[in-house]
Amino acid sequence: MALLLIIFLPFVGSLGAAFLPANARNAEAWLAGIVALAVTVLVALQYPQLAVDGVLRLSIPWSPTLGLDFQLRMDGFAWLFAMLVALIGLLVVIYARYYMSPADPVPRFFSFFLAFMGTMLGVVLSGNLLQLAMFWELTSLASFMLIAYWHHRSDARAGARMALIVTGTGGLALLSGVLLIGHIVGSYDLDAVLAAHEAIKAHPWYPAIVALVALGALTKSAQFPFHFWLPHAMAAPTPVSAYLHSATMVKAGVFLLARLWPVLAGGDLWFWLIGGAGLLTLLIGGYLALFQSDLKGVLAYSTISHLGLITLLLGMNSELALVAAVFHMVNHATFKASLFMAAGIVDHETGTRDINRLSGLFRAMPITATLALVAAAAMAGVPLLNGFLSKEMFFAETVFVDRPDWQRLLLPVAATLAGMLSVAYSLRFVHRVFFGPPAAGLPHQPHDPVRWMLLPSALLVAACLLVGIFPGATVGPYLRTATDALLGPAAPEYSLAVWHGLNLPLYMSVTALFGGFMLYLPCIGRRSERIPLLGGIDGKKAFYELLVMVMNRSGWLLGYLTSARLQTQILVILLVAVGGSALPFVDGLLQFGNAPMTAPDPAFALLWMVGALCAVAAAWQAKLHRLAALILAGGAGLATSLTFVWFSAPDLALTQLAVEVVTAILILLGLRWLPPRHERFRDGLPEAPRAHLRRLRDALLALAGGGGLAALTYAILSRPAVDGIAPFFVAEALPQGGGLNVVNVILVDFRGFDTFGEITVLAIVALSVYALLRRFRPAPESLARPAQQQRDPGLAALLPASGQETGSKPQETPSARPPEAKGLSAPADLGADLPTGYLMLPAVLVRLLLPMALLISLFFLLRGHNAPGGGFVGGLVFATAIILQYIVGGTQWVESRLRIHPLTLIACGLLAAAGAGLFGVLGGGAFLTAEAWHGSLPLLGDIHLSTVLLFDIGVYLLVIGATVLMLVAIAHQSLRGLHRDPGGNARWN
Amino acid sequence: MELIFALAVGVMAGSGIYLILRPRTFQVIIGLSLLAYAVNLFIFATGRLRLDAPPVINPTLGGNPALYTDPLPQALVLTAIVIGFATTALFLVVLLAARGLSGTDHVDGQEAEG
Predict the structure, then answer these.
(1) What CATH number is associated with residue B98?
(2) Would the CB atoms of B75 and A743 count as touching at under 8 Å?
């Protein structure tokens, strides 16, 4: 339980911090501090039990069918790391409270900071490799957010992106490696993986696994050649650099290498890959650190170098080296976090981090200087400080490494050289900043900061000293539990002591100290930014060149693989679909059955002769004769509708018929805005031969597709029906659904949730149509009045001349509020009882139709549960009647009389349907469980009310609203420019 | 009957396929309608063709599944018809807007070269 709290407290805190007001700097810091403190205490409290049990585990079923559990596992090593993460997190929170400016959006900072803490603890405490990989990527994301915290700065954005790309790619490699491990072991459980180390090492995939895991770890820990992202990550606020980019996140890589050390280490591959990368990084990082002019740059390269040292130790295939690596992880985190804090204080107090501008700060800020001095000495490996101890262990390992001769010589020399570099850059850091003549012309007058800002750094420096002087009494037992947890019974004996006698490692240390002094001497007065020798290695440039190359090549490949042209895309889709469906035909798998057929009916054959003719003719005419094509397609739809009714599907026939009508009106309304067909076609001018070829190709494809679908249909129809789940619906419609019309019962009851989703889609589509048309700009040649309207004198008087419309704003709202009569050119016409002109007679009939249509639609709605009908059909019928009013009466005339609010109808429909669903919840069932009420009322007699009816009413209202909204929105486009007052403002909103 | 039905599906699907490969938006919208008819009929066909057996339960005969045609494809197709209407409307408005913005009714928003 405590383990769970350790992981989740930071995330909860992160959420909480995100919602605090921007100016609540103290509240934020308190929240983050309390969370960090609580996590620290919780982690610390686990130790006694851990010392007894060895490993603490917690497993929560996550996806049991996949064998995935959420597993937390804390052993000594994980404990040590979790403690590091929590404790340094706590100190950095205190530091950040004073570092961050009141002008910074602090909620975001602390929110991501705590989220990072949670993800890092997740990496450390994961008992499952997949889960570890997930938290691993989350740390990359959190780091991205924190590097880009000052996102107005382009260097911050670029640095964040670079870090994310490099570590994210590494994370993917790690995931692949983990998947391979899981495949070999048969489990992602860390315990199982650790137990299966022999099987993994013997497996042919072992090299691939090592390479992939190494890729993940080396990118994360900024090892050569992936080291370049870390200096650019220094664009982050300094507390972030101190926490993520020196103490914790960059340690995730070496943490993982140590975690999997028993499984993967041993052998030449590991030595060369991990050890080689570590050695190169150690030297290159140390060398480059010597020439940085940015304080944080020095620390970043020194971090890279120290991480290289740890990686090298891990790559040496020796248990003692592993111990030294773990020890150095802890030591480095302590002194480097403290140094970053010191660099941040200098930056905060002087306004610059440029090592060439800073000088002689010791006088102005003695406490900061002292703290930095001690921490830098620890970094340099000066005796009586913690850095010295682990560096001595490192030197000893290089001397006693079990390798062929030349490597036994090379490694100690390289180690001593690295030690010298470390001394030199530490010296340079301290000497340049705190000694020499007092700096002039700094942005601020420097002085020591408030005590609370110094406290975290001071505590870390105290830890450096304590560990350095009394290693056995302070860190000893915890280090022992950590290494025991990693190595088990194979854990070696070692003693943490300051004095091991006069031995080779000590001589190496002394050489490094003096050599470092000598190395620094030529650099004392150096001001140049140029880096000798290795200046040509520019990881950033290589990274961007690679990035550009990848993008160019992808573009080139996409040019071959895809087309921006819709026709080509559809052609490819159809070819694949038709080709894929043709496979069964080729294999002879498709056989026609011999189920009993229904007897052929000449009438049906005639129906489809007409229907097929309509379809083909529509395809033929759609280019030049749109109206004809629309009518012909409608004919095919009618045949479809009749087919439904023929084969026992009355509901479908009704719906199809209603939809057919509405669709036809819809497209008719749109026809006006389409361009006139080009003269060339009308004149019968010859076309390019390619067009003929293309049409022939498409016709052949259509033939293949249509023929294939026909064969498939016949194959299905000629086989006996399969007993699927249909009998259930038929048998249970009445007992469970309380309705006789099975289709309707399925729609509103059994599969009510689907229908709820469907009507929601319908509502969204209607609103999208409405929204799209608000920004509609008709083509200029479509603006003129149609010839029919211009010929009719009544309409011509009513409607404005075409010239007025150009440049008019799109009309704001096609709502049904009546327009004010004044300002229109012919107000008398709108006041008339009937529209004038040739539509007077139909207008009378249509007005009579409206109440009857309402009645019929309600009839369909109410009987839908027991007989063909339902909300869909009812709604469509009524919507059609309303649209007929528009068609015959004209938009303005109708809207001056009839108030319909489609948006309200849509909202009511959705609310009614959702309300019907909630009744089910209130009744103790699932959402949309039907609730029925039987009873009798005076006069009315027996009454049966069901929430299903309410649901269907919702469907009904929504269908009316959506249909009318769409149709009226299109219809209103013809009135552009009409509803403007002289000021040009739309009056209908 | 089954053969006629299958041929009807094929003819409509073929006409639809031909049309959705054409360059003009109006051709595509009509093609999609035809294709939708064909596909709806195809889905409907998975419930087999039965005469005079609508899935409306006769209270005197009871809910014996053998007496009625398969209601499930019908429910699916009913949904498909309504959603088909919605997509047609959306497509129509998109094509009108595209025509207004690009000045052409070519599906790519620009006339093909050559």
Answers:
(1) 1.10.287
(2) yes
